[in-house]
Amino acid sequence: MGKIKVGVAGYGTIGQRLADGVAMQGDMELVGIADLAPTLSLQALRERDMIGANGVEYKLFLVDGADKSAFDAKDIPVAGTFEDLCKQVDVMLDSSPGGVGASNKEKYYEKLGVKAIFQGGEKNSVADVFFHGYANFEKGVGQNYLKLTSCNTTGLIRTVDALDRAFGIEKVAITIIRRVADPGDYHRGLTNALQMDKAPTHQAVDLMTIMPHVDATGILVHTPVTHGHIITVLATAKDGKKITKEEALEVFNKHPRIRMVSIDEGFRGNASLFKYARDLGNRRGDMYEIAIWEDSIVESGNDIMYAINIPQESVTIPETIDGVRALMGVQTTREDGTAATNEYLGIGKFKK
Amino acid sequence: MGKIKVGVAGYGTIGQRLADGVAMQGDMELVGIADLAPTLSLQALRERDMIGANGVEYKLFLVDGADKSAFDAKDIPVAGTFEDLCKQVDVMLDSSPGGVGASNKEKYYEKLGVKAIFQGGEKNSVADVFFHGYANFEKGVGQNYLKLTSCNTTGLIRTVDALDRAFGIEKVAITIIRRVADPGDYHRGLTNALQMDKAPTHQAVDLMTIMPHVDATGILVHTPVTHGHIITVLATAKDGKKITKEEALEVFNKHPRIRMVSIDEGFRGNASLFKYARDLGNRRGDMYEIAIWEDSIVESGNDIMYAINIPQESVTIPETIDGVRALMGVQTTREDGTAATNEYLGIGKFKK
Amino acid sequence: MGKIKVGVAGYGTIGQRLADGVAMQGDMELVGIADLAPTLSLQALRERDMIGANGVEYKLFLVDGADKSAFDAKDIPVAGTFEDLCKQVDVMLDSSPGGVGASNKEKYYEKLGVKAIFQGGEKNSVADVFFHGYANFEKGVGQNYLKLTSCNTTGLIRTVDALDRAFGIEKVAITIIRRVADPGDYHRGLTNALQMDKAPTHQAVDLMTIMPHVDATGILVHTPVTHGHIITVLATAKDGKKITKEEALEVFNKHPRIRMVSIDEGFRGNASLFKYARDLGNRRGDMYEIAIWEDSIVESGNDIMYAINIPQESVTIPETIDGVRALMGVQTTREDGTAATNEYLGIGKFKK
Amino acid sequence: MGKIKVGVAGYGTIGQRLADGVAMQGDMELVGIADLAPTLSLQALRERDMIGANGVEYKLFLVDGADKSAFDAKDIPVAGTFEDLCKQVDVMLDSSPGGVGASNKEKYYEKLGVKAIFQGGEKNSVADVFFHGYANFEKGVGQNYLKLTSCNTTGLIRTVDALDRAFGIEKVAITIIRRVADPGDYHRGLTNALQMDKAPTHQAVDLMTIMPHVDATGILVHTPVTHGHIITVLATAKDGKKITKEEALEVFNKHPRIRMVSIDEGFRGNASLFKYARDLGNRRGDMYEIAIWEDSIVESGNDIMYAINIPQESVTIPETIDGVRALMGVQTTREDGTAATNEYLGIGKFKK
User: Fold this and answer.
1) D17 to chain A: nearest residue by CA?
2) What mean pLDDT value characterizes chain D?
3) What is the dihedral of CA D262, D264, D269, D273, to 10 degrees?
4) What is the CATH number of domain C4-149+316-345?
5) Angle between helices C40-47 and B270-279 (to 10 degrees)
6) How is residue B158 annotated by DSSP?
7) Contact status, residue C96 vs residue C18, Cβ threshold 8 Å
8) Are the beta carbons of A337 and A326 closer than 8 angstroms?
9) Hey, which residues does B8 pair with through a beta bridge?
10) At residue C351, does pLDDT exceed 70?
11) Count of CB contacts below 8 A, B vs D?
């Protein structure tokens, strides 16, 4: 069997990283990317002669409404239309702005028989399965349309699913300390304020959709930073079972997409993780793993409490790649699917 | 009986507000304030001819090591030495930098028979009682030395004590989203980072000192803002009892030092509370009440979760004034003591 | 002659402070304020029983489109319609959102013979004179409509006008380091970014409108802070004349609305000025004076360079009050007009 | 002739990037790096098996006072002592903390006959020449010790030197809008404040040391951001000569280390440049070029005013590499020296 042919719709913060992630999969081919306007990210790609991650050329297709002359003006080569791209791919990773994915599905994917994975901005009803690589991989196998959990939910579920498989979790209460903007954003921002969202936060609700046996709730507070959400989680096991710090540590240590860090080592906050990823030489300073601070883990009666760092720009990439594997059925279990993704992305190599 | 004679040592962020709070008590006399250097706050006081809150003149005394010529150079009048001040007061509110309070106790308070209340920076051992006006007023009655809870702990205990008296609380897990600096601070700050503290945070430990029947733990994250900490609290009642949102609301609504607010009304975050206090015309834009967002309250199984805003500069003032009442024994119950403080500070008038 | 009857349209950041400023003028009467919705600022006013600055009751009138039931729901008393207010005033201070002022002029002011002063958000053409109390007071005398300079321009012109009267200025080049939001703003903000505006910045253009003999240009950069713009100014005198630091200092020291400060005294940045104003006990922590850092003043060849702090929320209040005086002709010279305003606002008392 | 053997002392923010820069030079060999403690940056290097830029292995040597067991505990391999490193290199790039460089010179460089380049933290007297690759390359040729200009001065001089060679510059007045911390810094920071430095700022003084025929002064304001200083420059040509915007543009466009950008293209501020460098796939998201906003350039009488973005972490790397070339005399003119550096670093390829 040949490589899985993949396209990426929308070359924004997530789309760029999806393209990079696909370009790194030995068993996938990045057929192309699609966008509407010659953004800074596309100007940067052109400055590198359209060569992206892993030495792969990223061919650019234009979505409906795009003005080709604007691309010509910046010498950005165009390979065709979005329909052209759709016709050449097995799976489209749709990271278009919210709502556009649903429209693309109706206009293109259904008609052309293209499978698709939608990002968090779309409604759940756009997809057959609300998907997470570790929590419900098997539900996605052989489906046509998946919707990925958003960045916070993706990282959160990695930890709750791992605890759940080890101990059986019945309840979680979370506090999301949310970064309010990405580096380079000017259209949204917050200056010297912490901003409240109405509770319960949607990430708790989303967790319950994926893990219906868990009772989840929580509060979200926006903070004026750009590098990584921090979530505190209080998890309660079933039947009054106690989870000790040592037991939790053992579970987290084994997870390929969880990086245990500590303040003592120098990881003083979310900015340390970003700096570390830059120093690793990772493309764009990205990191696929979430981090848990070992010195944040405390026992609360029988419950366990801990703090996670979520690298919001890149955390959903591995689970989306997992989704491609599930949709195409090249792997049919969570173990095999996530292992293949991890191998190609270099995830888990840091584990000793 | 005459007015209680009170002094304030240290005219920093807390000391200024303690002086203002005392100046507003009809049954207390602010004998004077003491400091080391002609800070901006003292320059501002001089520009107002040494007239502070409520039209009261604030007489300035110099602590050991102060250079009087520096005050002369700025035309700031000096009324005497710290010892002079000690000799004229019944109670000293000591808001000196951490460690200086203990030294003052040994050098002055014990020798001159002056009672004192220390702020959060001192060790607990400096005082007879670790004090909170609502949680353990009676323990402070007739004592010589109290230590006040710090700003976060003071506000947190207001809520946990209220729930405890209503339902019996056995466990709390908190996440403190801490403002990292006060307005006007340059010596400390944080730029585009969330910074972790090792768990458990001291505020949880302090709560257990005051309320030993409660099991408390939590995680603290510093954030780059200046107006008000936000704490999320998950409180568990004894014996598996459920606390409903309505029950919690009823309890919070009755507390004079808790202000219920909502996002819908316009209180979108911590900066809204600061703006509101400024618009109220409050001196320095301060607020004595903590706020709880009504639309943050959620049930987590039988537990109740909610978010508090802590106005860090002024929140401890009422409980410190309560402490003066306890030390002097002019009131002997929490109801009477806090009611007198509230009356003079105008607290609770907003309750409908 | 009786007091000048003044109304304020729009009780936002500027409107509140205009109302306070009018309430402090011994020869003016604040007839009322007008707004559209029961904002937090109006909720705060109600909590104080509608009593604003100087013990004055602020009567509330509703502008077109306001829903009275929304005010009733919050127990905010309503005194009438905007038209009712217009009929009772000599001058309306219009601090409505941009564009509404022009509409008000057409619908109400012209028909009812009400004079008006518009804030910076309106187009210059709405008014007879683009006004600054110190730079062109006399041009406003006896007119019907004035437009005030915006916050940065108001403060900037105070300094350039003062230098111009002393030395004759022919050219200024400015860099505006702009605070991006006011305390309590959530609808605009900037997180970890400096944002450029296209040059030349409008404040330089506005300065040339008021002072047409000066060639002005400049660059504006938005910064993620809330307390006070900082402007650096490079001013060139006519005919190659040199301005020394001492000469500049002498001029600035004499200006009632300029406060000379220094880093050595403790004024380390814009947040120090805000803290100082809070410590002065000023309502809302506001300050009417701009500040110039004495230790920022440097000579550049024959030119003089200095840095100004602009308290953006309150700086335009005195010049607007000056405008009322000009419109009504109660004073007819800049010296008399500004002196009367300063006297009532307590400006300049800090001068030794 | 063999490759130039280069070492890097201090693997902090600058040292890491110097090592990367050397690793990219075809005619240089990175013999090793030296540091004191197993920082996060060294932990990241170890996670990549000590492989840095361009596939080069970075051998680690320990400076005096280092505790080898701390490196062993983290499995970081150690190749020897700082003295061992010194004995193997022709030139040491010393990016130690301020003051340590002078001590290294005395203890090692002079005794062992090692040439060295010191970073901005050292005193000028440590070196034979205060060096800038474009402004005074020839002065460094054949010397033993150079001191590099700091990040702001390096970028600033690129522009002033270019204008000077084209038009003859006699005076500049600058405003530095300084980022207060680097990404990942917790030990310094600023929260909701603009902080003033006393004028004149040292960068203006440093410029005059390098370009003594120019009269320079300026004001520096610290701002709470991490990505790139912005400097506004007002430059005056000799003899009253006018510099037009078109002339300035032509000069800037030709400079390999100046990138012309515009708000219209999407470069809305300093964060856009950082995002762009990340999107380019540059290691650590770094950029060697400064940027000038085309739409910031304005004429002020005969003078020209413009705004520069300084990528503070990486801007000094090319000029330091230039310094190696000068010291070793492999090139003897600014044209040849900077051209070789640019070629290996890929600088100027973006020019059309």
Assistant:
1) A279
2) 97
3) -60
4) 3.40.50.720
5) 50
6) H
7) no
8) yes
9) B33, B93
10) no
11) 49
Least Cα separation, residue C317 to chain B (angstroms):
16
| Spans of all domains in chain C | 4-149+316-345, 151-310
- The predicted pLDDT at position A98 comes to 87
Yes or no: say if C249 and C297 are a contact pair by the CB < 8 Å rule.
Answer: yes
Question: What ipTM does the predicted assembly reach?
Answer: 0.96
Listed residue (C130, C348, C150, C339) closest to C252, CA to CA: C348
Interface A-B, measured as beta-carbon pairs within 8 A, has a size of 157
Q: How confident is the model at residue C352 (pLDDT cuts 50, 70, 90)?
A: low
Tell me which chain C residues have a C-beta less than 8 angstroms from the C-beta of D301: 171, 215, 236
A neighbours by CB contacts (3+ pairs under 8 Å): B, C, D
The model's pTM is: 0.97
Which structure tokens are listed for A267?
């990881």
* Chain position carrying tokens 């110039």: C292
Give the other-Cβ count within 10 Å of D69's Cβ: 7
Average pLDDT over residues C311-336: 98
CA–CA separation, D127 and D136 (whole Å): 14
Q: Do C184 and B272 touch (CB under 8 A)?
A: yes
User: Which pLDDT tens digit goes with each residue over D71-126?
Assistant: 999 999 999 999 999 999 999 999 999 889 999 999 999 999 999 999 988 899 99
Both structure tokens of D90: 């022709």
Q: What is the mean pLDDT of residues C223-240?
A: 97
Nearest to A183 among D52, D266, D275 (CB): D275
* Section D268-274 average pLDDT: 98
Phi then psi for residue C158, to 5 deg, are -50, -45
The predicted model gives B89-102 an average pLDDT of 95
Domain A151-310 in the same topology as domain A4-150+316-345: no
The fold adopted by the segment(s) A4-150+316-345 is: Rossmann fold (3.40.50)
Long-range (24+ apart) CB contacts under 8 A made by D124-133 are D124/D209, D126/D101, D126/D102, D130/D206, D130/D209, D130/D210, D131/D319, D131/D322, D131/D323, D131/D326, D132/D157, D132/D161, D132/D210, D132/D319, D133/D318, D133/D319, D133/D321, D133/D322, D133/D323, D133/D326, D133/D334, D133/D337, D133/D338, D133/D341
> How is residue B18 written in tokens?
């303690």
**C-alpha of A186 from chain center:** 22
Residues with Cβ within 8 Å of residue B187, at least 6 apart in sequence: none
A120 band by pLDDT with thresholds 50, 70 and 90: confident
Torsional sign, CA B39, B44, B50, B54: negative
**Nearest residue to A25 via CA among A349, A288, A342:** A342
Tokens of B63: 């602590």
Average pLDDT over chain C, rounded to whole? 97
* Cis upstream peptide for C200 (omega within 30°): yes
Partners of A193 on chain C (C-beta within 8 Å) are 184-186, 189
Q: What is the pLDDT of residue C138?
A: 98
CATH class (in words) of the domain with range A151-310: alpha beta
Summary mean pLDDT of chain B: 97
CA-wise closest residue to A314 among A338, A347, A340 = A347
Q: Across the interface, do A44 and D185 touch by the CB < 8 Å criterion?
A: no
Q: Categorize the per-residue pLDDT at C102 as very low, low, confident or very high, splitting at 50, 70 and 90.
A: very high
Residue D8: name the closest of D18, D52, D106 by CA. D18
pLDDT category at A16 given cuts 50, 70, 90 is very high
Residue A352 has pLDDT above 90, yes or no: no
Bridge partners (DSSP) of residue D179 are D223
Interface contact C279-B40, CB threshold 8 A? yes
Q: What angle do CA D242, D244, D250 make, to 5 degrees?
A: 125
Instruction: Give the CA count within 13 Å in the CB-facing half-sphere of B292.
Output: 26
CA A277 to chain D, closest CA, distance in angstroms equals 8
Does the distance separating the beta carbons of D271 and C199 come in below 8 Å?
no
